[in-house]
Specification:
About 30% of the residues lie in helices and about 30% in strands. By secondary structure, the chain is an alpha+beta fold. Strand 4 (about 85-90) and strand 5 form a beta hairpin. The longest helix is centred in the N-terminal third of the chain and has 14 residues, at about 30-45. Residues about 1-30 have low confidence and may be disordered.
Length: about 200
């Protein structure tokens, strides 16, 4: 287990969904989570934002001590359901988001996000925090940031059990592959908080 060490975009077109082939090839095989972790580490190093992956709360039941410096957890269980993957501060704003991957080329199944996580994002949004969902369609090599407001609106208005890719392309923000930071999602957060998009 690793512990922490506005304006809508234009509808996506082929022009703005193309990627640098070298970057895409280099990042192939990296999980979305690992790329976000690297991005957050970069943000902290340049003193831009302090956003961390939340540790999953567990209760340790049994530990094996073969020697003083080689303790090994043999049995543990989750104590309470986790909320979302990441939270922190940026420009005095509270940031909270969940990150998910899907192999589907057509939709993101809502079963990938738990009801208590949706409720949590709703509560953060209601209290003026910046809440969103980052989803990577791995088969398409497309990664989107969907604001909580749009996610909640879709769930409220639709009886479907998945969010179609077209909704992401219309309502969400495309996050292009980058070198450093890997996934510069704070450029989109600047838009969400009404700040300037410092490209």
């Amino acid at each position: 287990m690793n512990y922490p060490g506005g304006i809508k975009k234009e509808k996506a077109t082929k022009a703005n969904t193309t990627y640098d082939s070298n970057l895409s090839h280099k990042n192939r095989g990296m999980t979305l989570e690992s790329e976000i972790n690297i991005t957050n580490e970069y943000y902290r190093e340049i003193d831009k934002a302090y956003i961390y992956k939340k540790p999953t709360p567990i209760k340790i039941v049994k530990v094996d001590y073969p020697s003083r410096d080689k303790a090994k957890i043999k049995e543990a269980y989750f104590t309470v359901p986790s909320t979302t993957d990441y939270n922190g501060l940026y420009k005095g704003k509270y940031i909270d988001f969940e990150a998910k991957e899907t192999k589907s080329k057509t939709a993101f199944a809502l079963t990938n996000i738990h009801p208590h996580q949706i409720e949590h994002l709703k509560n953060i949004d209601n209290h003026k925090g910046i809440a969103f969902l980052i989803v990577r369609f791995t088969s398409l090599n497309e990664t989107y940031l969907l604001p909580a407001k749009d996610l909640l609106s879709y769930i409220k208005e639709s009886s479907k059990k998945s969010i179609p890719i077209n909704l992401f392309r219309e309502k969400a923000y495309l996050l292009k592959d980058n070198y450093m930071p890997r996934i510069d999602y704070l450029k989109i957060v600047d838009i969400l908080i009404g700040g300037k998009n410092n490209a």
